[in-house]
Amino acid sequence: MPRQLLRLALVCAALAGVVTAASAVQYTDPFDGPDLADFWTFRTPGDNDRHAFEDGWFILDIDAGQDTYKRGVDGAPFLLTDPPADDAAFSIETRVNAILDQAVQPVASHTGLVFFNETDWSYSFWGPYNNVDIRLEDVIEQDYRWRDQTLIGVTPGGGITEDIYLKIEKNGDELEFLWKLAEGDNWESAGVDAKLGPQYRIGNYKIGLFLKNWGGSIPTRAAFDYFHSPEIVGLSVDPNGKAATQWGALKSR
Ligand SMILES: [Ca+2]
Ligand SMILES: [Ca+2]
After folding, report:
1. How many domains does the chain have?
2. Alpha-carbon distance 85 to 81, whole Å?
3. Could you tell me the distance, in angstroms and rounded to a whole number, from the CA of residue 226 to the centre of ligand 1?
4. Residues with beta carbon < 5 A to ion ligand 2?
5. How far is the CA of 30 from the centre of ligand 1 (A)?
6. What mean pLDDT value characterizes the chain?
7. How many Å lie between the centroid of ligand 2 and the Cα of residue 55?
8. Ligand that comes closest to the CA of residue 237
9. In this predicted structure, what is the pLDDT of residue 172?
10. Is residue 16 part of a domain?
11. From the CA of 73, which ligand is nearest?
12. Mean pLDDT to the nearest integer, 140-160
């Protein structure tokens, strides 16, 4: 009998371990839909940009010519949320597919992760660009920097032909831009920027996802598998990646 009790105790301990593992919280949004979580704001200049959920992906869907550029050119949709209350050091990441409707990324388009200070018209755009490369472009008011000025980017051979993992790490006033092609790969750094960091202070900026296009573009879509930050309180998910918190429960909080 004591032996059986011991076995029962061991089974209970093992089950407790499983339960603990299953309830481990990651702070992420797996984009299961069907609605946006409460912590997101969909910013759609011109009120003409669309979004949808498809098979666990969040889709941004825009007409041609939805450019966001220097102050005064403001057409691209952003999905935005707040940085963590203590933003001294944190990271955000996503997996983006910029080639939904053709074999390569559409011309004249840029998509990925964004840091955005609307008041001072400053942003950092990080992601696949124009079927050319994965790059950082940024702006402060009328001071725009292309890749040859930010000097941060990578050029995969053959253009943008598959989905890409993106990450931005903020450490003090520095932003580091990282990427990889597969979930199991190690993150690779494309560089560190120290110019835009001072533009991002608690209360004056948001973070999230973007999709823009410009002259010569066609209607463009981009899909995001998830948005994740270890430091930001988002949705609790189980190890299978499904949202453990019901959307109805979230909405009633
Ligand atoms: Ca997903
Ligand atoms: Ca728009």
Report:
1. 1
2. 12
3. 5
4. 45-46, 48-49, 66, 75
5. 4
6. 87
7. 24
8. 1
9. 97
10. no
11. 2
12. 94
What pLDDT, on a 0 to 100 scale, did the predictor assign at position 252? 30
Range of the domain at 70: 25-251
Residue 216 reports pLDDT greater than 60: yes
Higher pLDDT pick, 221 / 102 = 221
Name the pTM for this structure.
Answer: 0.84
Question: In the numeric block, which tokens belong to residue 209?
Answer: 């996802």
Number of Cα atoms under 13 Å in the Cβ half of residue 213: 23
What one-character-per-residue DSSP string does 172-232 give?
TTEEEEEEESSTTSPPEEEEEE-SSGGG--TTS-EEEEEEEE-TT---EEEEEEEEE-SSS
- Domain membership of residue 213 (yes or no) is yes
Contacts of 63 (CB under 8 A, 6+ apart): 48, 49, 219
245 CA distance to ligand 2 middle (Å): 32
Ligand number with the minimum distance to the CA of 78: 2
Domain assignment present for residue 3? The answer is no
Q: At residue 146, does pLDDT exceed 70?
A: yes
87 found inside a domain? yes
User: Domain holding 200: CATH number?
Assistant: 2.60.120.200
Q: pLDDT tens, 61-84?
A: 999 999 999 999 999 999 999 999
* Å from CA of 189 to ligand 1 middle: 24
